[in-house]
Amino acid sequence: MTKQSDQFNPEENLAFISGIIKNTQGNFQKTSFYFLLWGWVVVLANLGHYYLMVHTTYQHPYIVWLITIPAWIITIIHAYRQGKTARVTTHLDRVIGMLWFGFGISVLLLVILGMPVRDYFNPIILLMVAIPTVITGYTIRFKPLIIGGIGFWIFGVVLFQVSSDLHYLITPGAIIIGYLIPGHLLRQKEQ
Question: Mean pLDDT across the stretch 124-144?
Answer without folding.
Answer: 94
